[in-house]
Amino acid sequence: MKYPLVLLVLAGLGLLGCDSVDPNSPLGKRQALFKEMLRTSEDLGGMLRGRLPFDEQAFASGAVRLDELTAQPWQHFPQVRDEGDSRARDEVWQRQARFQELADAQMASTRALAEAAARPPLQAKTLAPLVARVEADCKACHSEFRRY
């Protein structure tokens, strides 16, 4: 009785793995980058909102890292919709000029944040509007181009 049960459990676990995204595919690469961007951005916002202790050096490093990350995912959106469980709406491929416009805005806002974070002493009142701009740019793109 135990043998068939073990086989059933192993088969079920094997099927769970079939649903995963290939990390080397364009979809897998951009998902990984977006997740890292989110974690980095959340840490920066957390420092400014008091959820995390403010560490000037960590904030500056995080701002630079976010700027580096923000330049990367756009290259992993192929010219035609790719296969897989993407949260990207079809509009990404139908309105590529607008999508690129929002990507450019995102890159500009993270660049401005990184530049400000490179000029100590860092003050929350100076950085908060820049982080808010980064977050607003993320939201703008998600509103138009992401399925929830």
Automatic annotation (TrEMBL):
Protein name as catalogued = Cytochrome C
Pfam families for this protein: Cytochrom_C_2
Q: Which UniProt keywords apply?
A: Electron transport, Heme, Iron, Metal-binding, Transport
Q: Does the keyword Transmembrane apply?
A: no
Name the Gene3D superfamilies for this protein.
Answer: Cytochrome c/b562 (1.20.120.10)
